Structures are given as C-alpha cells and as structure tokens.
Amino acid sequence: MIRTIIGLVWLLLLVAGVAGCGRFAALQQKDPPQGDLYTAHNGSISVSANAVTQSKPRRVSWITLARKYPGAFATRGPTSSKRVALTFDDVPDLEYTPQVLDILAREKVKATFFVVGERAAKHPEMVRRIITEGHSVGNHSYDHTSYALLSMRKFEDQIERTGNILHSQIGYTPRFLRPPYGEITPAQLMWTQSRGYFVANWNVDTEDWKGLSAGRILRNVRRTLGPGSIILQHAGGGVGEDLSGTVKALPSLIRILKQKGYELVTIPEMFSESQELESMRLY
C-alpha cells in the first residue's frame, strides 16, 4: 500500500515537471528576443545569426529617443498648429508610386517620400518626378535591412549609398532619414546627428502594408490623429504586397484632413520652425 502511494506521488511529480518544462519551452518560443537584435514587422520576427552569443544594449523606446535626442529624432512635429504630414515609404516602384503621385497632383497636396536606394537606382525617373512635382524625399536605407541588425560600418553604408544615389539624381543629399521598420539604436542615432541628419518616424500608422481596405486605413488614421501628426503610408510594394487600399483611401483621407482644418505639409515644412534644426539644410 505504502509503495503504491509513493509510486503515485512520484508519478504526479514527474507529470508536473514535464508540463512545467513544456510551458517554459512554449514561453521561450512565444516571447521575442529582447534588445537590439530583432525587429518585428508583417507579423514576423527576424533574428541575427549571432543573437544567442552576442550581447547588445536593450532596445530603447521611441519616446526615450525623442526626449534624449530632440534635435535628431522625432515621431511627430510641433503641436502648436494644426499641421500634419503625409509620408510614403518604400518608394519608388512603377505600380503604386505613380498612382499616389497622380492623386496628390489632383488634390494639390505635397507629401514626403522615403526612398529605398536600391529602388531609386532602378527607377530614377520616378525619383525625379517626385521632386519635379514639388514633393520632398528622405533616405529610407539602401535595401530595407533593419538597422538594428547591422554593424556600424554596414549601417553607415546603407545611408551613404542611398544618399549618393539621390544626390546624383536630384542634385542634393536629403537630410531626413526614416529607418526601415523605424528601428535605430542610440549609437546609430548619435552618428546620424553628428552628420547633420534627422530621423523622422511617425505617430500615425495606417498599417496599409497589411493589405487593409480603405475603410480600415481611415479608421487607423483617426485613432491617433492630432496636430503635428506624421502619417505613415506606403507607395512602393514588396513582392505580392497589395497597396490598393492605400490608393483608394488617399483622396478620402485628404478630404477628411482638410475638413478637420489641418494643413498638409512636407516633413521639411513640418520642422522648419524647430530651433534644434535651424542650422540644417532641410529639403
């Protein structure tokens, strides 16, 4: 009898231990790695090959970066006036970029396009069209690799290569940057600041890269819209990416913003009165 009881006790302990191990493993799989070694986008997580062995600083929030580097990083413009900035990432392409430009021309609105250098090299005519029609451009890396996964040298190369491409196409090097996925480390941010760049992220995410409908995109904008808002959209699609919702929503979005009394400006215009940026040549 006693042996039977002892056997049952050991069996229960064994089952509990196995269940505990299974739960621990599940949590390890579910929770993303911490620090600067990952970036989450499109529902996936990318981790560097040496993430297990290499130690890096913990990821710093955008709020902290904006407070610590007010002359180098922002997610929104001044809130003292009702201005908003429409921004479009991952340009140029030959499908969505022309459609967005057509709408902006028809609505007489200027926007800011964050350019991927690799794409600009393939479609210089689209970059020139963006500039010719009065819009602003910014640097969005060379090949859309997450900066948080790169060494400093490779990070610098991403910015410099795209800057050189744009300079050859439009005659100057844009000083506004937007990191892929918005991810940048403090060390990288200090480098950009020392060279006269300014990182302009966003505070209104349309989430249009998910292939959302026009109605859903407009609801996402209303959620966090306010004076000084920087609105993130995309006008360059990846493989199989559907941005038709972006194109369909844009005329309604512009109309809604104007009805609410907002002035639509470019990123350089948004920060033109910022004291921290007075010494920068802004385009």
Structural description of this entry:
- By secondary structure, the chain is an alpha/beta fold.
- The chain has 2 domains: about 1-30; about 60-275, Alpha-Beta Barrel (TIM Barrel).
- It contains 10 helices and 11 strands.
- The strands form 3 sheets. Strands 4, 5, 6, 9, 10 and 11 form a 6-stranded parallel beta sheet that branches.
- Helix 3 links the parallel strand 4 (about 85-90) and strand 5 (about 110-115).
- The radius of gyration is 23 Å and the shape is globular.
- One of its GO terms (molecular function) is metal ion binding.
Quick tags:
2 domains; 3-stranded parallel sheet; NODB_dom; 6-stranded parallel sheet; 10 helices; hydrolase; alpha/beta; TIM Barrel; globular; 283 residues; disordered C terminus; 11 strands; 15% strand
In short:
The protein has 283 residues and is an alpha/beta fold. It is built from 10 helices and 11 strands.
Structural topology:
Blueprint: H1 2-30, E1 38-41, E2 44-47, H2 62-68, E3 73-74, E4 83-91, H3 96-107, E5 112-115, H4 117-122, H5 124-132, E6 136-139, H6 152-170, E7 176-177, H7 186-194, E8 198-200, E9 204-205, H8 214-224, E10 230-234, H9 244-259, E11 263-265, H10 267-270
Parallel strand pairs: 3-8, 4-5, 4-10, 4-11, 5-6, 7-8, 9-10
Antiparallel strand pairs: 1-2
Helix pairs in contact: 3-9, 8-9
Protein name: Chitooligosaccharide deacetylase
GO molecular function: hydrolase activity, acting on carbon-nitrogen (but not peptide) bonds; metal ion binding
Organism: Paenibacillus herberti
